[in-house]
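Title: Prediction job returns without error message
Component: structure pipeline
Severity: low
Priority: P3
Assignee: unassigned

Description:
Job completed but the reporter wants confirmation the result is attached to the right record. Sequence as submitted:
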Amino acid sequence: MAWLKSLFVLKLQYLDLKKGEDFKVGLRRRYLAVYDEVFEELSREKGITHKEFCEMIGLRRASVNNFRDGTRTPGVEDIMNLCDKFGYDIGYVIRGKDKPAGKVPAEGVTLEGIYELLKEIRAKL
């Protein structure tokens, strides 16, 4: 029975139980909500285009289209670029508003440190 409990716990990690959606679907939805909100504000205030906005956050316009049609999910770097440049909580984009943060990170562990570690790992692959 322990294996069944483990399987259930794994399934819970990938579902947003409140909405019944897959983790990746929720992540794309929240990322695009932030993207659209920031772009709308900047286009109104500064008159920037989608192409200019994508360049600001280090994306190609095609990537955003892929997020919208579900063929690609924003990566950690995509999420951090958008959130860091415009002051959004990365936790919101990853977990959603109603998700508790869970465990507190160990002392001295920061998102920037984790990000740098991920970059090092990627470089080795």
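Comment from assignee: result matches the submitted record. The chain has seven helices and two strands.
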